[in-house]
Design goal:
Low-confidence stretches: 390-422
Strand content: 15-25%
CATH topology of the largest domain: Heat Shock Protein 90
Number of strands: 22
CATH architecture of the largest domain: 2-Layer Sandwich
Helix content: 25-40%
Mean pLDDT: 84
Largest sheet: 6 strands, mixed
Length: 503
């Protein structure tokens, strides 16, 4: 950052200016605020009101006081790094400006008075007690899912649901033993009474909504592209799903599938082609993420899924957790509710390292659509997924498929696949072939053809593969079995799951 940039840049979410004369205790406030938010830079030696360059070189004693602030007046201390920018001060003398670089922190920080601050726009705002607790949840310093549910007992838990879960895990003891011995699902309080955790109730409760009325998922379908109220209200569907988290996810995804339009048309080579408004994996991933990572301590609203003519908006209580930001969400993973995430992983809804967001983005990119847009409105995380299907021109009363510019015909092969894959698809196939070659294996024609179909449609069935390729169902199964674990993996159950390429 140059001195010109310092003088002209407005104070914002990640930048502030402070006079060299600032009181050390006062400087602790923006340092704490930046660390609790997205990180930032403080330019010291520049008047925050007039932007006149004061410099620091004539104030060495004062400078040393300010350099100790991250250690002396911040709790816990903050690992601030410093750089110096040469400049001319307001009197025309050679001087320097100090830049304090404050990283975003995974911990909650306070000043010497045990006050917590958060950077909001160009202000360092003091947090209320509830906001402070919420921030601790978001940063993983406290876990709401481990807290006891007031008034809940073992009798409120569905032991059949626990049995189904422990059978997946291979746990040999009783369901009650599992709850008592694992994940703090059931613990004993100071009065010697057994208490049930939030995670236990949300996952295994007979009626979780008795204790958490808004722990539910609501789908709203609007007519048009705007959300209207009053006499112009344009809601045409309003459905709510309750029960445990697993039940909610399954029923919500199942219902959304009835609302996502599919467009089947006669494409190239006389084959029917189906396009969806939203990829199936994207729908599932967004529902799972909303249920898995919402802030359940925020009780005033439920998860809302709003479908418009041109987009779906997923609204979930709670900001992005931990160090996750819209800019790094594809490759930075943090679970606000790790026990809920572990549960869903056992049912193949959540992957170990959260690579689902990255895959979701890749699927949308392959469709030529924009990736989801994340933003926070107060305490609600809103994720917008744009509709991907375009309407294509009619041809003699039939829709024709619009092929990518690079799509060319391959030589005919006994009625089998004849269309060249788009470049981004073909690249996947080429990498798999290269991987097989490096393993001393040459993939035969049928295996490559199966991989091509799965890359195009991860939800394709073995029957559809057999019909498309003109080979037997048994041949499809044997080829898939030979590639499974090396080039293919199954995600989810046989019915309702999908195939994933292992590159």
């Amino acid at each position: 950052m140059t001195i010109q940039e310092i003088q002209t840049r407005k104070e914002d979410q990640t930048f502030d200016c402070k006079s060299i004369q600032i009181d050390p205790k006062a400087l602790a406030i923006p340092i704490v605020a930046f660390a609790n938010a997205d990180g930032g830079v403080i330019a010291i030696g520049v008047s925050d009101k007039t932007r006149k360059i004061e410099g620091i070189d004539q104030h060495i004693d004062k400078l040393n006081e300010l350099l100790r602030v991250p250690f002396d007046f911040c709790n816990p201390s903050i690992p601030v790094s410093c750089t110096y920018v040469p400049c001319q001060d307001k009197d025309g003398n050679e001087n320097r400006v100090l830049l304090m670089h404050i990283p975003a922190s995974s911990s909650l920080h306070t000043n010497q008075a045990d006050e917590a601050f958060m950077r909001v726009g160009d202000k360092s705002r003091k947090l209320t007690f509830d906001e402070r607790v919420q921030l601790m949840y978001d940063k993983g310093e406290r876990s709401f899912e481990d807290t006891a549910v007031y008034g809940a007992t073992i009798d409120d838990i569905d032991m059949d649901a626990v049995t189904r879960y422990i059978n997946l895990l291979g746990y040999s003891k009783s369901p009650l033993d599992y709850l008592r011995e694992n994940s703090h699902f059931v613990t004993t309080n100071k009065n010697g009474e057994e208490v049930v955790s939030v995670a236990c109730m949300l996952l295994f409760g007979k009626k979780p909504q008795l204790f958490f009325p808004r722990a539910r998922t609501r789908f709203i379908r609007y007519n048009g592209v705007d959300e209207k109220v009053g006499t112009e209200m344009n809601v045409i569907k309003d459905v709510t799903f309750e029960g445990g988290i697993l039940h909610q996810i399954e029923k919500t995804v199942e219902y959304l599938e009835t609302q996502v339009a599919e467009h089947t048309f006669l494409g190239q080579a006389g084959k029917f082609v189906t396009r969806r408004d939203y990829p199936k994996f994207v729908i599932q991933e967004m529902v799972v993420n909303a249920c898995c990572h919402r802030a359940y301590n925020i009780r005033g609203t439920e998860i809302q899924i709003k479908m418009f003519d041109d987009r779906i908006v997923f609204e979930s209580p709670g900001r992005l957790p931990g160090m996750v930001r819209p800019s790094n969400i594809r490759h930075t993973h943090f679970s606000r509710n790790p026990k809920i995430a572990a549960f869903l992983k056992a049912y193949h809804f959540v992957k170990e390292y959260g690579e689902g967001v990255d895959r979701m983005c890749r699927e949308l990119e392959v469709n030529g659509s924009t990736v989801p847009v994340y933003h926070t409105d107060d305490f609600i995380l809103k994720v917008t997924v744009a509709k991907v299907t375009e309407k294509l021109p009619e041809n003699n009363g039939k829709l024709t498929e619009k092929l990518p510019e690079n799509a060319k015909k391959l030589p005919e092969n006994n009625g089998k696949l004849t269309e060249k894959l788009p470049e981004n698809y073909q690249g996947i196939i080429n990498r798999i072939i290269k991987k097989a070659n490096s393993n001393g294996e040459k993939l035969k024609e049928n295996k490559i053809a199966i991989l091509r179909l799965i890359v195009e449609d991860p939800y394709i069935s073995k029957t559809d593969i057999a019909n498309t390729l003109g080979i037997s169902y048994t041949a499809v199964g044997s080829n898939i079995k030979a590639m499974r674990g090396k080039y293919l993996r199954r995600v989810g159950p046989d019915k309702g799951g999908f195939w994933e390429i292992i590159e």
